[in-house]
């Protein structure tokens, strides 16, 4: 399905929206087009909605979106040290790997890059969170299964929280995708946040 070719909530009743203080802990989002909000207007992407949800629930985190459309795990790994030094995050969300799979890059390199990002984040005093990725079945069962196992393997062995595949809830429904049939639409963004929130909430 075309959704696989990615280059890749409502506020609590009565909750007060709070301004983010200058000393608020940072949540760094290191992702690809899914988190960069490709094709969306400012304020529509799931990362923006996450920032608004945190504020509405009185959770004074500063969300820094360092996502880049088309990014691979190698690119994220190369950028991460500088981002850790600059932002000193408390939590690092690693939403990467989809582009590695679409380019059929070696699974061994994918795993190494994910492990290094986890280790670098922890060394900097941050809690890493991995995001599960999926690729089309036409890449062949051997590669596809090895790809998926890479995420679960790193998550289990490194004891890293992992968000289930963000597009799982609406992958077969074209109305949740942009005209290119590839990137999630504005209507899909709340559902993406809903998929991520159960994993993120206990860490806050």
UniProtKB/TrEMBL annotation:
Keywords: Signal. Residues 29-188 form the SGNH hydrolase-type esterase domain. PROSITE patterns: LIPASE_GDSL_SER. It comes from Panacagrimonas perspica. This is Acyl-CoA thioesterase-1. GO terms for biological process: lipid metabolic process. GO terms for molecular function: phosphatidylcholine lysophospholipase activity. Gene3D superfamilies: SGNH hydrolase (3.40.50.1110). Residues 1-15 form the signal peptide. It comes from the Bacteria.
